[in-house]
Fold each of these.
Amino acid sequence: MTATAIEPIMLEEFLELSETKNASESASESIDG
């Protein structure tokens, strides 16, 4: 039960981090080329 309740939060945080990372990489690519 507890694990299931925590999982969505972890997933949400992971997605947020991924978005931030992708945004940073896209910005770097735009600057580089």
Amino acid sequence: SSSSKKGYKCYDVKNSRLFISRDVLFHEQTPFFHPIDYVGQGLEAPHNLA
């Protein structure tokens, strides 16, 4: 692979592999993760270790 080739590094979740593609479509209005996945998983308050 040549360093002059341009593309996007993509991750194939099904096959757990990275690949390079120039044919990429971004869905910027669609969340990557489902919003319900993180409901109630806020940051915890810091703990004093002293």
Amino acid sequence: MQKVYKKFTKSLQKVYKKFTKSLQLYQRFFIKKEAPDYKFYSENRQ
């Protein structure tokens, strides 16, 4: 059972990494193209 679980989590991590990477790329593209004030907003929120 643990073997299956490990395999599952590994593939899940891969998918998650891919997803976050594409999300970051999308955000960068969005910030550049659409709204410079969006970047300003996100920086101020932290």
Amino acid sequence: MSRLCPKAAITMHHNALDQAICEALALLRTTAGPDLAVQAEQARKCLAQAVMADPDAPQQALVHIAAADDHLEYGELMEARTLLTAARGFLPGRRAVVAARA
């Protein structure tokens, strides 16, 4: 029976939060258009669900995600993207790849 070391368990645990940040970043690529508000709201919901599922994530990551949510509420996409990118840096382990632009 194999056991995960604590570091591996933490990395796997926060992988869903990292993936949610990547999904939010992909949603926020659009800089104009009628779907902008819809995409920002989808990103907010995605992040909120991930944070609720991972309350033990590093505090600095959660603070950055909360600040990004505030910026998304007001349509400030660049600020939100910057904060989400910084939040990823506080998560341990390997990072998911942000989807390429279509």
